[in-house]
Amino acid sequence: MPANILNLPAYVVTALHENEHDYHIHATVKAMPACPYCGSSDLSGFGRRAQMVRDLPSRGRRVGLYIDTRRFKCNPCSISQGKTVTFYEPLPGIDERRAMTSRLTAWIGKQATKRTFASLAAEIGVDEKSVRSVFRDYINELKKTVCFEVPKWMGIDEIHLIRPRCVITNVANNTIVDILHNRNKETVVRYLDHLERKDQIQYVAMDMWAPYRDACAAVIPDAKVIVDKFHVVKMANEAMEVIRKSLRERLTPKQRRGLMHDRWVLLKRERDLTDEGSQLLSGWVRNYPELGLAYRLKEDFFGIYDARSPDEAQGRFLQWKDQITPEIAPAFLDLVRAWGNWAPWILEYFNHPIAHAHTESLNKLIRVMNRIGRGYSFEALRVKILFAEGAHKRTNGRPKLARKKVSAQALKETLYWKGREGMEAVGLEGAHFFHKPRVTPKPLPKASSAELPEPPKNYGVGISTLTRLLENGEL
Ligand SMILES: [Zn+2]
Questions:
Q1: What total number of domains does the chain contain?
Q2: What is the DSSP string of 346-368?
Q3: What is the DSSP string of 147-198?
Q4: What is the pTM of this model?
Q5: How far is the CA of 74 from the centre of ligand 1 (A)?
Q6: pLDDT value of residue 419
């Protein structure tokens, strides 16, 4: 029997049966165990049991491993305790609780971000519940290996993964740092509350969703909440769309043909219109004054965002509001109300106009996720995003601005002399080389912080990289 068919060196293969769907491999543990209580190898056999465990599928077939597990009696323990002390031999490389090889559980963890639980379960020959449970453990292990920097500029947005979820971003780095199960206040509060360095958050850009704002007020009251421009101007486009659609409904088919491509032309900013576009537009404005007014209001609303201060913006808004005629007021009602309810946070934008690259790339990611997300659980999608290999934005912890080379030994000594405070200053608290140096160091010339290495940082999952990987089917 080829021993390497299993490729588990701790086992001896004793028999192999195969059929169209399965391999059944019988094996025993090669080495003799020692008593787990006293370490003695003075053991007597005390029976066996057959254990079936699942292994990695092989050549398209499911693999069942039948391990003839030996039970032993420990002679010294039995004498000293005056009763029979027995144990089953340990099974190396096997997760006995799950009846799977460890390499199978590791493989499931990785595969589950690329495939659905159902297809994995079928390939291995277990139920979906087992796959889900292995995957949960895999995530918990992964979580311990990754720690994202708490953003100074946090974004709280919405992403649709089966249902609307809350996505936490690092606005300055254009990365995702977490995805929360839902958009409730309690969920966001719990998330913010658990962040170790929540004091680092200075600004939070968000949509007009009161639970986000309330959560921030409760946990990080000093952080400035800012309603992102994108979410506000979007409402002006939507208002114009309402007018355009209701107009279309009232037109004859012939008139409607004259409005070809109206949506695209109207959604464009005036300054971006082609000659053809602006000709079309001026024609429509002549024929349908209310469409012209809606377009003008949309453009003027965008124009509010050219203001350079909150006061100027509020002034522009009030002027803008006066232009709304009763006939088209209902379409713009939501926008006017939103401004009323959120004015302080909308206006805060004008103190901190942030880049929108992140909202746009996030929207692109959301579209891609909608396309490929079917059949996955929320947890699988979340992990697919957060632990996407190759999409993390990191610094690698090189010394910044090293004017002079500092040897590793000198660095250890410096850190030693600087003591725990010094370690913390460079973010190395708890690092493994906090020990006494081999040689007694001379006090070093003042090492400026510029010469000490920065600890590596992970800013989260690069949104653009992630989108590209997903589009190319590389995740
Ligand atoms: Zn013993």
A1: 4
A2: HHHTTTS----HHHHHHHHHHHH
A3: -PPPPSEEEEEEEEESEEEEEEEETTTTEEEEEES---HHHHHHHHHH-TTG
A4: 0.70
A5: 5
A6: 38
